[in-house]
Amino acid sequence: MKESIFLTGYNQTNLQISKESKILGWMQNSKRKEIANGDYVFVYNMDNKRIECVFRIDSKSENNELIWKDEKDSNSVRYENRWNADLISDSLGIDRSEILNYSPFNKDVNRFNLLIRNPFPNFLDDKYDDFCSFLVTTIPTKESISTPKNNDMDMNLDAKQYFLIQVNERGSQNILENNTYRHLRWFDVPKDIDHGKVKEGDILLVYFARNSIKYKQCLKKVFLVDSVSGDKTTFNVKELKDLRGISLQDIKTAIDGGKIGNSFEKLGQQGFNIKQISESDYSAAISLDNNLYRSDDNNELNEKKQLGGPNLWLLRAGDRGQGEEIALTRGLVGIGYDGLPGLHSIKDIKAFREHYINTHSKDSIGRVNAVVPQIWKFMNEIKINDYVVLPLKTQNSKIIAVGKIVGDYQYEDLNPEIKQFRPVKWLNKDVPRDAFDPEINESFGNNGTVFHIGGIDTVNKLKEMLSRLGIKDLGETQLNKRDWLSLSDEEIDPRNEPQHTVNQKRFDPYKNFKFKVKWDGKYVAGISKMSGLKRTTEIVEHREGGDPNTIRKIPGLTRYEAIILQRGLTHDLEFENWACKVSSFDPTSGTRSSLPDFRKDIILEIFNEAGEFVMAYKIYRCWVSEYQALPDLDANANAVAIESIKIENEGWERDSPTVEPPEPDS
Q1: Is the pLDDT of residue 410 over 90?
Q2: Of 499, 498, 518, which is closest to residue 616 (Cα–Cα)?
């Protein structure tokens, strides 16, 4: 008969009393199932927040003394449901954080809180199978795991057998670190019948479950059974073979395709531990491991054959585009993958794969298989002079940055997410997606971080697009001799790219204190301040009955804001004369306007620090709507008297014929 497992919670004082008296007590009988002789009770220490010990029920206790602390305080027997129990182990030390990793507590922590506070022992039924399987492994066994081989066994010792086993967190730790496999038993009755068939010299094909310490969801190791314990529950093993790894998805696909048998269909299922398989099943699994990676190797070889000339690569800067700003501002493409140090010393992909698994033990083998080739390509297969495209997720991938690789793989702590990077010279940072050749455009849907779009033919299509859009390319001879580390900041930092067409060594913008204003063909003297040129287009909101629950926004009327000119008060009458064209005072007839010429076109000219004319704006159909002849006067002030006019206008534009003049060298 299978023993049952119970869980209860005690405070430190009462737990110590139970250990000394070898009595467990509760206020009520157990719900759902009565506790019985031989059952196991795990006790959670409420003060230390860990499962500290396990008892085995011996018999119903007739002791009615006041034993526990809160019982003595009340002077009455509170714990009437009492059992004599043997202390099996008092050093389990299973922390609360570890307990909450198991079902169902990992989804409902309140369930665990209720269990340990219940006034009765809690029977752990099939809802707690995952947790029970773990608890069973913590109970010490009395038998030695090094019992010599029994020559009287009913099986042929010379016939090698094959077993498929699945290990979880504790099991993976035992087999990887201690070279021991301990089969889960429900004490007198084994959980799997096949465990009793294992003998010295047999082969174990090991699948690591989702909560393993390493190689998650992966068929990864082959072990030889070195010795078997007397009760057939524990095997000493030694590693025979390290597979490259078959993910759970690959296993399911292989079963559906008939490449391996149905013996593997229980892998990944909760409760599966061990199953005997045929030699042909074992050989099929080894063959599948080889074929999966032989196919990948062939693809890599075929791809390398295409990598003779410049290639085009798709790269991404974070799943949300969080690395795009640093990529575009610093002139680089980078990949994240936390936990990876500099990888310059790793020279082959197999060594890198093992390195990645060691630094990312929580990753499933499926993720390992997806990530490792991408990082390797980023480090070693992308070459200087190759082209890269970076779909900007911050622009919904509708805008693409196009660049050219100018340096080898680098490692630097640029920010918390980007450390592995390649230097890039960006050719253009805002190419519309629909401008690309359809074949290239289609590749933008690939979800990988690093993806090889194509070779020289694809690059030629990219170059045709760049030429069509007037985007300047960089010649190979300009890049081949460059080492990114030796480039100056001006060469690698996009913030320092030339922004002046003639004076490309100038990186500073023009200042706001060198300007002149003219109308009627002559400069107006003394202007010291001018407000900015600003226009605003109003929004027209509209929707139709069949539209989604959003409003369409349509550009409406455009308004050009008035311009204010100020200058010191002098005897020059330009401000006053123009203002009087709109409205002048006549003592006999009142105000009057000069309708034919109250409007003027004015020109704003900008100059560089050397006083050279660099650009101009034309402002149309202007007239004075407000004129201030005198400012506030104050006998105690110390300032220039200012007159000003407010000019309405109906539009302005840059004077495009104006060209940038060469600046003097000194």
Answers
A1: no
A2: 518
**Exposure on the CB side of residue 516, measured as CA atoms within 13 A:** 14
- Give percent above pLDDT 70 in the chain: 82
Q: What secondary structure letter does DSSP report for 216?
A: B
Residues of the chain within CATH 3.10.590.10 domain(s) are 5-137, 162-291
Give the Å distances, CA to CA, from 621 to 562, 597, 598, 604: 12, 10, 9, 14
Contact call for residues 450 and 420 (beta carbons, < 8 A) = no
- DSSP SS3 for 109: helix
What's phi and psi for 179, nearest 5 deg?
55, 40
CA distance 402 to 409: 19
pLDDT value at position 290?
A: 74
- Top-confidence residue, 620 or 316: 620
**How many C-beta atoms surround the C-beta of residue 451 within 10 A?**
17
Mean pLDDT of 124-148: 63
Q: CA triplet 247, 252, 257: central angle to 5 degrees?
A: 120
| Cα(414)–Cα(416) distance, integer angstroms | 7
pLDDT of residue 75: 58
Torsion sign over Cα 88, 92, 96, 98: negative
Residue 232 CA from chain centroid, whole number: 45
Q: What is the mean pLDDT of residues 628-642?
A: 93
Residue 311: name the closest of 422, 473, 457 by CA: 457
3-class SS letters over 395-458? HCCCEEEEEEECCCCEECCCCCCCCEEEEEEEEEEEEEHHHCCHHHHHHCCCCCCEEEEECHHH
- At 534, give phi and psi (nearest 5°): -140, 140
Q: What is the CATH number of domain 162-291?
A: 3.10.590.10
**pLDDT score of 476 more than 60:** no
Task: Provide the CATH topology of domain 5-137.
Answer: ph1033 like fold (3.10.590)
Give the angle 433-436-439 at the CA atoms, nearest 5°: 110
Angle in degrees, CA 179, 180, 182, rounded to 5 = 160
Q: What is the CATH number of domain 515-654?
A: 2.30.110
Q: What span, in angstroms and rounded, lies between the C-alpha atoms of 235 and 223? A: 10
pLDDT tier for residue 345 given thresholds of 50, 70 and 90? low
Tokens read off for 496: 């320092």
12-59 pLDDT, tens digit each: 888 888 888 888 888 777 766 788 888 899 999 988 888 989 999 888
pLDDT at 158 exceeding the cut of 70: no
Give the separation between CA 267 and CA 473, rounded to whole angstroms. Answer: 54
Exposure string for 516-541, b = 16+ CB within 10 A, e = fewer = bbebeeeebeebeebeeeeeeeeeee
Q: What is the pLDDT of residue 73?
A: 59
Q: Are strands 332-335 and 312-315 parallel, antiparallel or unpaired?
A: unpaired
Query: What's the pLDDT tens digit per position in 279-308?
Result: 888 888 888 887 765 444 444 444 444 445
Answer whether CATH 3.10.590 is correct for domain 312-496. Answer: yes
What confidence tens digit (pLDDT) does each residue in 573-614 have? 999 999 999 888 877 766 778 888 899 999 999 999 888 899
Closest CA to 241 of 208, 205, 199: 205
Residue pair 619/604 in contact (Cβ under 8 Å)? The answer is yes
